[in-house]
Predict the structure.
Amino acid sequence: MKVGVFWRRFRNVELQRRLTPDKVYDDAYDEAYHHYEALKEAGFDAVLIEWKDDPIKTYEVIQKEEVDIIFNASSLKEIEFLELFNIPYVGSGIDLAATDKRMRKDIVAAHGLPTPKYVVAYSANEIPSVDHLRFPLFVKPIMGRGSAGIDEENIVYDKSRLPKVVSKITEKIGQPALIEEFIEGREVTVGIIGYRNPIVLPLLEIGYNNVKTNTYEHKMFDNEIIKCPMEVPEEIEKRIKDTALRIFKVLNARDYARIDMILGKDNVPYFLELNTYAGLTTAVERGEKHVHHGYMGYMAKAAGMTRKEFIGKILESALERYGFEDKELLLA
């Protein structure tokens, strides 16, 4: 059994590069190397594979290395490639990866789970009516990642400010803009690993350092105030975890995912989005290069997991889905 760990240049910052190319740091290789090391520590044979622009070249490397399963697929293009060539991989399938934030919100709402009301704008000149929405509003890319395009101006208190923010999303990032009600409360993110018997990790609360939301720079340069486990009454904790687990299941997430929510002042956990490519990096080992710390890495630590146990469990979930049941044989 051999695991190929994908890495792709600028995987986390490709959208933000369109706005501030001089303020991005590409940690794609460092992140993949973290996963590679964790898998080796867990006893798996692993190899790093760089994603090529020509998918045939990527396929040739996979064949040459005799890889059995891929870890760290990080875009819809990569998942389409793996599906096309029938290569097993870790993480959610094309049925979820191909959906945008709007579609996921609609599915969640259809199952009776709370999520802020929204509209979608395709240009600054054609913004749908927002009269039925409660201000302030929050504007973000419909398929964004890594807080790309997010700064404090994305919180909109006045309708006259909407065109400027929508234009940033639609013209500079090149995506439709999701405009939703801004729920005041505590930002909480919930990590879940597994598939048949998913495990909900300790809750993580994201506090802000002199900003009103988790902007790109605030997040990518680890400026957040992290509280993990989040301090909430037991009944509220259970409500958040139960809601997150239902979302994980109704969206058919696989192996790992992170659900972002706002715990409103009414103690209702409102669904914002599900991250299929959530960051999994943990604290680096002594002597290793610093790498941006993933939220799920904090959760794993709070759950008492080492990085090899954490990454290993995620891989084992995928192996179980594909029918590779004998772990001793896999490690041979």
Observations:
- The chain has a mean pLDDT of 88.
- The first strand starts at residue 2 and ends at 7.
- The chain is about 35% helix and 20% strand.
- The first helix runs from residue 28 to 41.
